[in-house]
Amino acid sequence: MWADDPDTETVEAREYRVWLTPDQARPIDGIHYNSVPTYPLRRKEPTPHEADRWAWKIQRVSATSSRRASYVVHVWDCEEAPRDAEELDVFAALEVLRRPGVMPCSECGADVALGPLA
After folding, report:
1. Which residue, 5, 28, 3, 23, is CA-closest to 13?
2. CA distance 71 to 62
3. Are strands 70-75 and 102-104 parallel, antiparallel or unpaired?
């Protein structure tokens, strides 16, 4: 797997793990598998520095006397995104964007990432 590194503006290799059934995985002669985990690995909490993470959050904008309440779709780590909001995948975010009055955030780039797909 490959991913962009925004700090160096390069592409680098990333670790990729999958679970295989016993039928899919066959031992290689001469290789010892004593250190291979046989239990599910614990998911670590993502940090804001992980540039290859794609998740979205929805912010409700309250109604005022001049406009109705609306929603804004943000990239998960946007400063404007509510910290306690549920993280959505791209399909759920696009469903929200299809509703009338919902806008993607231009500050975090949600408009660039999701705009062509909506």
Report:
1. 3
2. 9
3. parallel
* Number of residues assigned to the chain: 118
Tokens at 18, concatenated: 């999958």
Query: CA 73, CA 82: separation in Å to the nearest integer?
Result: 10
Overall pTM surpassing 0.70 (yes/no) = no
**What one-letter code names the amino acid at 76?**
W
> What are the tens digits of pLDDT across the range 12-60?
777 767 777 878 877 788 888 787 777 766 666 656 555 556 788 999 8
Pairwise CA distance, residues 62 & 46, whole Å: 30
2 touches 10 (CB < 8 A): no
> Is the predicted pLDDT of residue 69 greater than 70, yes or no?
no
Single-letter amino acid code for the residue at 14: R
Contact at 8 Å (CB) between 104 and 114? yes
